[in-house]
Amino acid sequence: MTQIPRVLSIAGTDPTGGAGIHADLKSIAANGGYGMAAVTVLVAQNTRGVRATHAPPASFLTSQLDAVSDDVTIDAVKIGMLGDTAIIDAVADWLTRVPPPIVVLDPVMIATSDDRLLDETAEGSLRALVPRVDLVTPNLPELAILLDEPVARDWAHALDQGERLAQDTGTRVLVKGGHLAGMACPDALVGAGEAPFVLDGIRINTPHTHGTGCSMSAALATRLAVHGDWRRALTETKAWLTDSIQSAAELRVGAGHGPINH
Ligand code: PLP
């Protein structure tokens, strides 16, 4: 019997179920994994925006993480919203004590609604976490902040930024074209000293993309744990994500940016 990968999401919440750990759990299940979740920050939000956040003490996150790793063999970890420096430090410390075989970091900073999901003062700590993970999945504004540069103007510029982040950190980077203008929506895996693996995609004209980044990083961590092949994991994830965005309008959840159809 093949072991179903046990995938842990470390992320914030979305009570409307579209982003954060809720999206991650659906995404992990849809991509063939067993989902687990440790909450970093409680977020009072809906499809229109973030109303308030509440972070339990970072030591309580450590208790959650230890409770999982003391009992369950973890095959992959997806890290999402971390919120502040104390939380980043707690996760970094746990990663040192319990090195999981696969760690994917979605460096969540600002939501589509323009609400901040990471303290500005914590950007340096998040940068320092990047070399500690196997794959980082920034959107283009987040990629620019990680490099402390202006946002990429076009796809060639985005690829160049991704390659430089991979060189500087030794970590693979998923460069995502979702924030570019135009009809194309490519994604690429770039690694230090590797030729980029580029997948072309079509842009789907829909406002319902809330939680797309969360869902994609959780799916990639899961697919990677299923068969261990980065390129295949991205190819399968992108096909699944395209279908999930294409059928998002059927859901009719909320009046703002609705969730994708996991
Ligand atoms: N809320 C939480 C808890 C998240 O982790 C994220 C992830 O990026 C978001 C909201 C942002 O959602 P989006 O920008 O896709 O609307």
Task: Please name the defining characteristics of this protein.
262 residues; alpha/beta; UDP-N-acetylmuramoyl-L-alanine:D-glutamate ligase; eight-stranded mixed beta sheet; two-stranded antiparallel ribbon; 10 strands; 38% helix; globular; binds pyridoxal-5'-phosphate; Hydroxymethylpyrimidine/phosphomethylpyrimidine kinase/hydroxymethylpyrimidine kinase/phosphomethylpyrimidine kinase/thiamine-phosphate diphosphorylase
Tally of strands: 10
CATH H level: which superfamily?
A: Ribokinase
Main sheet characteristics:
8 strands, mixed
Q: If strands are numbered along the chain, what order do they take across the biggest sheet?
A: 2-1-5-6-7-8-9-10
Bound molecules: pyridoxal-5'-phosphate
How big a fraction of the residues is strand? 15-25%
State the order of secondary-structure elements, H for helix, E for strand. EHEEEHEHEHEHHEEEHH
The fold-level CATH name is UDP-N-acetylmuramoyl-L-alanine:D-glutamate ligase
